[in-house]
Design brief:
The chain has one helix and eight strands. It is globular. The relative contact order is 0.16. The chain has a single domain, classed as Lipocalin (Beta Barrel). β4 and β5 form a beta hairpin. The protein has 139 residues and is mainly beta.
């Protein structure tokens, strides 16, 4: 009986972890198809955050957010929090904004886990139909 219970607990832990969006993800530019950065998604006090931990183009390693406004203006992209406070809502995470460091613009966003290694990240203005989607891949 203990072996069956232990097997069930281990299986549940594996399945639960595979449904998590936390971890490191490779971002792909939806316009160029190029790999752009490594983003770490983490949870704090029940909310989801994402920060850039690595820029993949050598020429951008020390780049700052020239187009950002307010507190992020001219701050390094590396270490910058780009998603701030998503909440789980059924099969998606929403209720926060995402920063596009290229333009300095912020958009409403939602995230859905397409499969354990593929994340759909949708940024939009107003309605979710008016926006763009990126896919991030777990590393």
């Amino acid at each position: 009986m203990k072996k069956i219970l232990l097997t069930f607990v281990l299986l549940f832990a594996i399945v639960s972890h595979s449904q998590s969006i936390t971890g490191k993800w490779k971002t792909i530019d939806d316009e160029t198809g190029k790999e752009r950065s490594i983003v770490e998604i983490y949870e704090s006090e029940g909310k989801i955050y994402a920060k850039i931990v690595k820029l993949l183009e050598k020429s951008e390693e020390n780049k700052v957010c020239e187009n950002c406004k307010d507190a992020n203006k001219n701050k390094p992209l590396k270490g910058m929090i780009i998603i701030n406070g998503l909440k789980k809502d059924g099969n998606e995470w929403n209720g926060a904004k995402i920063l596009d460091p290229k333009t300095g613009s912020e958009y409403k966003c939602y995230i859905t886990l397409e499969n354990p290694n593929k994340l759909k990240v949708r940024g939009y203005l107003g309605f979710a139909l008016l926006g763009r989607t990126q896919y991030w891949y777990r590393i």
